[in-house]
Design a protein that fits this description.
heterodimer; A: 5-stranded antiparallel sheet; two-stranded antiparallel ribbon; B: two-stranded antiparallel sheet; 47 helices; AP-4 complex subunit epsilon (chain B); membrane (chain B); Clathrin/coatomer_adapt-like_N (chain B)
Chain lengths: 168, 986
């Protein structure tokens, strides 16, 4: 089972943190800091795996990938395959890249809820749900279309004013 | 529009992530990635402009229900990003919290604004600040009819709330309603929330709806419903136990995605109870076959592999189902063989499947062909440049050596390379592998390496683990007592505060009991060497408390026993310890008790005792100590000094720490008193356990704590002694030596993956290796004690015999181990490899023989010598052999010769160099140890059967069978457990 998905930048600022078992805010912070301090001390060109029992309890592994200014991190237990998890990160990034066309750290920061929508389509309750990025994008687009519809139907005037405000 | 300047500023700092999608780590340039690469121009300005436009567009579209955010959010993120200190960030966030508090209370907030507020709240909480004031707003949003707000609300509550939070009760109703919604996106959002927010008590409230959704028209919903049920199962298996059949049924869903999702709960169910699912083996095999034959729609391909994640899950499940089940395993042979052939090892995901196949083969009853394919795959992994693959290779090797121990041999150099790799993860994995393959022949090299590594790291968690592994290996395989004590000293010195207190007790017991044979001379030598080493170490600054306790105890018991050191010298040292560590009461207590013993021995032997002035000061200081324990010890010491020799001798007899103290644990002498009390109306005693039912005396920590605080005189009743381990109490300190149970700990990390077979094989391993064990666990020794109880002469004779056989045939064997391609390998490394994997040497065997074990064979049994060496090295530790496959070896003679030459030169120029072992004086010996690699690894005794087994191939099963036969016939009494391989053979 996947225990956590984290995206943080190279300064250690969390960008997305999702834990599949509830953890108190302080504990989450502690783990994010712990993971970052381990990651930042790792040299380049080494393996993408870490055994991280000290932070997440026995039999915890961590797979990470460093893209530009971001670390993508997956924490999981022994019932997952490390190399497959590495590919899951690829799936996630690939999907984000398609979603935001040339994804960068900013996209993730500013599109927090979309980011979560994508993530929820890929990992569900700690299990891998979908690995086809086209399917994920299809689902995400459908959601945003409907959200837009539900928003504009109920709030025509405000949405119009918002549009003008945005366009100005 | 938010100011372009802001955007630009931000953008200049950001790099586009996508541009690195095809980083060197991404294995294999697949089509998708290369497309991305091509799409992206290399010049940054262009990309940034595009980026700016994208964001501008998004922001502009914000009002249309996109995902854009307002300028406030932009500013917030920006200012937090620019904050120089944590304090500054906190200030910004606090202002933001105030703003949000105010804004959320405003009436009639536009929906888009409301959403943004909540997202800002989530963002703040992610940064570690308290956003609990807004939880209720998030809950309210889930009630909203608009999908936008509902989804945002659900997202926020799943991130904010714990499943036992009070507010959940306000959401359950909404979830129920949403699960029945016509809009499948609403249903999905609700299912998402179900996974996180429903606890054991609320499961029944949503369970019927979720079960209904299993037959929903949309496959996305069916998938999520299955996952939700799976989640329920994890939280409370009993609540969904009647629904398990649904999972089986959903395996036949016509959508492959749903089928794939069903594998997740089935994996859990099967790992809990294998036998109820044996009937599914054929279904799983046929599914896997269909997947590998690309019968799934093309859209399930990922990097040209058909549905790899489904394949991996299936392999995991089948490993569980077929573990130890021959017929089930046989059903899988074909598809596994296909996988090995088809898997594309140039992509990451292809390797993931290959690794999973290796893992699967290590669990099932393998066929020789599959083992060979697995070994090939492993060697490909190990030879790869990618650290990830090396890691997988080492891991796979660790799994496979349990079945077929000769696999590691061909990879010894790769393993050594990994050990020296800068990558810490890889290093640790390699240490784990070494730990698994340790035996008496290579224990010294491995433990030395481990200790070096232990000293070099700062991570206390791992330090503890590796320290306990060192201790375990040292206890199990130590070639000599001196070595054992040295190792323990190092462990205590560098990780003293991290090792379990039981390790210390065990060490003391070892020193007290010695060999356990009737060899007082050796025991005394051992004690003297311990005392000497401690006297050397004792003056070093800042020793860990536990180590000082051991030192004090040993000096007290045996410091003066040999007559080499005077009582005043030892007592002076002990006073120094008590002085230097005056804040550590435990150490002081041990030191005072040690002083007491030394003086008692002096008095008892009739010598006149002069108490050193510093001792006198110490005693006086302690008489007034705040600690009653120290006070009592001081008073006892004072009283003892006034007694005459006869009295003292009966209080503290010399070297009596091993004598059992008779403890009448039933307190039978009080029976009369109790009888009387009951007769006069008292309540009969009910034991504490019965009263509370919850009191667990075996609690590890409480026990430890207990021992630390009341290290000397305990006033509570002792725990019931375990029947198998006679309680060993020291006369003087009355510290019950606890059953050495720490050794079970280090196994945990390995065996937690908890497949049945792993547990089995770890058991096997323990038994396998028990032979050289001299101390430690009585329970494991029991099996070996039988063989050691045979008349010593016969045992010696036969062992010598077999040793001779071993030695001669190992030296005669052409070297079949090295990779012939790399003749220029660093000789240092080769020697290390030899000592790790072969690891026998004259110096050790000398030590061995001096320590009362085997007598080195003088090459008398050169029965099988085909290429006689001038001086066949006796290899007493070799229990067995894998035959050299004399036939297969012939094909590769040239590389071996080449290597032999290399080894010779290397050992010549490196004779006195600082290799870990540095034991290869003569080239021949090196050869022998390299050769003995195979035999070491297989750890069984085939040596005596050498002649008859000339045609043995890599078929390990056959080898095992033969082995078992050899053992059953009792040809080789040095082996420990004749029934061992019967288990393996079923």
């Amino acid at each position: 089972m996947i225990k956590a998905v984290m995206i943080m930048n190279t300064q250690g600022k969390p960008r997305v943190a999702k834990f599949y078992d509830f953890l108190a805010v302080e504990k989450q912070q502690e783990l994010i800091r712990g993971v970052f301090s381990v990651l930042s001390s790792r040299p380049d060109n080494v393996s993408n795996f870490l055994e991280i029992d000290s932070l997440f309890g026995p039999d915890s592994r961590l797979v990470y990938k460093h893209y530009a200014t971001l670390y993508f991190v997956l924490v999981f237990d022994g019932s997952e395959n490390e190399l497959a998890m590495l590919d899951l990160i690829q799936v996630l990034v690939e999907t984000l890249d398609k979603c935001f066309s040339n994804v960068c750290e900013l996209d993730i920061v500013f599109n927090y809820s979309k980011m979560h929508t994508v993530l929820d389509e890929i990992v569900f309750g700690g299990q891998v749900l979908e690995t086809r990025s086209d399917e994920v994008i299809k689902a995400v687009e459908e959601i945003s279309k409907l959200e837009a519809a539900s928003n504009s139907i109920s709030l025509v005037p405000k949405s119009v004013s918002g549009w003008r405000g945005g366009g100005r | 529009m938010p100011s372009q300047a802001v955007l630009e500023e931000l953008n200049l700092k950001e790099l586009i992530i996508g541009s690195e999608l095809s980083s060197p780590n991404a294995h294999g340039g697949n089509v998708a990635w290369s497309l991305i690469r091509r799409r992206k121009p290399n010049n940054n300005p262009n990309r940034k402009m595009e980026q700016l436009k994208t964001i501008g567009r998004e922001l502009a579209m914000g009002s249309q229900g996109g995902f854009g955010q307002s300028k406030e959010f932009l500013d917030l993120v920006k200012s937090i990003g620019e904050s120089r200190s944590k304090a500054e960030e906190d200030r910004i966030v606090l202002t933001e919290i105030d703003t949000l508090k105010r804004k959320l209370l405003e009436p009639d907030i536009p929906k888009r604004k409301l959403k943004e507020h909540i997202i800002r709240l989530v963002y703040i909480e992610m940064l570690g600040h308290d956003a609990s004031f807004g939880y209720i707003h998030a809950v309210k949003m889930t009630h909203d009819d608009s999908l936008l707000l509902k989804r945002t609300g659900y997202l926020a509550v799943t991130l904010f709330l714990d499943e036992d939070h009070d507010l959940i009760i306000l959401i359950v109703n909404t979830i129920q309603k949403d699960l029945r919604s016509d809009n499948y996106l609403v249903v999905c959002a609700a299912l998402n929330a179900v996974c996180r927010l429903i606890n054991e008590e609320t499961i029944p409230a949503v369970l019927p709806q979720v079960v209904d959704l299993l037959s929903h028209g949309k496959e996305a919903v069916r998938k999520k419903a299955i996952m939700a049920l799976h989640r329920f199962h994890r939280k409370s298996p009993s609540s969904v136990s009647h629904l398990v059949s649904n999972f089986r049924r959903k395996l036949c869903d016509n959508d492959p995605g749903v089928m794939g999702a069903t594998l997740c709960p089935l994996f859990d169910l099967i790992s809990e109870d294998v036998n109820s699912y044996k009937d599914l083996v054929s279904s799983f095999v046929s599914i896997l076959k269909q997947v590998t034959e690309r019968r799934l729609p093309k859209s399930y391909d990922y990097h040209q592999m058909p549905a790899p994640f489904i394949q991996i899950k299936l392999l995991k499940i089948m490993a569980l189902l077929s573990s130890g089940d021959k017929s089930a395993s046989e059903m899988m042979y074909m598809v596994l063989g296909d996988l090995f052939r088809k898997c594309d090892s140039s992509t990451n995901i292809g390797n993931a499947i290959l690794y999973e196949c290796i893992r699967c083969i290590s669990c099932i009853v393998p066929s020789p062909q599959l083992l060979e394919s697995a070994a090939d795959a492993i060697s490909k992994f190990l030879k790869s440049d990618s650290h990830n693959l090396k890691y997988m290779g080492i891991d796979g090797l660790g799994r496979l050596i349990k079945i077929s121990s000769d696999i590691a041999e061909q990879h010894q150099l790769a393993v050594i390379d990994c050990l020296e790799d800068p990558d810490d993860t890889l290093k640790r994995k390699t240490f784990e592998l070494l730990y698994k393959m340790t035996k008496s022949s290579n224990v010294e090299v491995i433990v030395d390496r481990m200790i070096d590594y232990m000293i070099s790291i700062n991570d206390n968690h791992y330090k503890t683990e590796i320290a306990s592994r060192c201790v375990e290996l040292a206890e199990q395989f130590a070639p000599s007592n001196q070595w054992f004590i040295q190792i323990m000293n190092k462990v205590f010195e560098h990780a003293g505060d991290l090792v379990n207190i039981k390790v210390a007790h065990n060490l003391m017991r070892l020193i007290a009991e010695g060999f356990g044979e009737d060899d007082d001379d050796a025991d005394n030598k051992l004690r003297l060497s311990a005392v000497e080493s401690y006297l050397q170490i004792i003056s070093e600054p800042k020793l860990p408390s536990l180590f000082l306790q051991v030192i004090s105890w040993v000096l007290g018991e045996y410091g003066t026993a040999d007559g080499k050191y005077s009582a005043s010298y030892i007592s002076g040292k002990l006073c120094d310890v008590a002085d230097a560590y005056s804040s550590d009461e435990t150490v002081k207590g041990y030191a005072v008790s040690a002083l007491m013993k030394i003086y008692a021995f002096e008095i008892a032997s009739g010598r006149k005792v002069d108490v050193l002035p510093e001792c006198q000061t110490l005693i006086e200081e302690l008489l007034a100590s705040h600690s009653t324990d120290l006070q009592q010890r001081a008073y006892e010491l004072q009283a003892l000094l006034a007694l005459d020799a006869r009295a003292v001798e009966s209080i503290l007899p010399l070297d009596a720490s091993c004598e059992d103290i008779e403890v009448d644990k039933d307190l039978s002498f009080l029976n009369g008193y109790i009888q009387q009390a009951i007769e006069s109306g008292a309540q009969p005693y009910i034991s504490e356990r019965e009263r509370s039912g919850m009191f667990e005396t075996t609690d590890y920590h409480s026990q430890d704590h207990h021992e630390v605080t009341s290290h000397a005189l305990r006033f509570e009743a002792y725990e019931l002694p375990k029947p198998s381990v006679p309680s060993q109490a020291s006369t003087t300190a009355l510290v019950p030596v606890p059953e050495p149970s720490y050794y079970s700990e280090p196994h945990q990390p390995i065996s937690t993956s908890s497949s049945v077979s792993e547990r089995e094989s770890s058991e096997i391993k323990l038994r396998l290796d028990g032979v050289k064990q001299k101390w430690g666990r009585p329970s494991y020794q029991s099996s070996t004690s039988a063989s050691s109880s045979t008349p010593p002469q016969a045992a010696n004779g036969t062992s010598t015999h077999s040793d001779g056989g071993v030695a001669s045939s190992s030296s005669s064997r052409p070297r079949s181990s090295y990779e012939p391609k790399k003749p220029e390998i660093n000789p240092e490394k080769q020697r290390l490899a030899a000592s790790l994997f072969g690891g026998s040497s004259t110096s050790r065997s000398d030590r061995k023989s001096s320590s009362g074990g085997h007598k080195p064979a003088k090459g008398t049994a050169n029965r099988a010598a085909t290429v006689p060496k001038e001086n066949p090295t006796p290899v007493p530790d070799l229990l067995d052999f894998d035959e050299p496959t004399a036939t297969s070896g012939v094909a590769a003679t040239d590389p071996f010769k080449e290597l032999e030459g290399l080894m010779e030169s290397s050992s010549q120029d490196g004779g006195g160099s600082t290799d870990v072992m540095g034991l290869y004086g003569a080239p021949v010996k090196t050869t022998t140890s390299v050769d003995s690699l195979l035999s070491e690894l297989s750890d069984s005794s085939r040596g005596t059967y050498h002649q008859s087994q000339t045609t043995k191939g890599p078929n390990s099963k056959e080898a095992l069978e033969k082995d078992a036969l050899v053992r059953q016939m009792g040809v080789n009494p040095t082996s420990q457990n004749p029934t061992l391989f019967k288990d393996l053979l079923g």
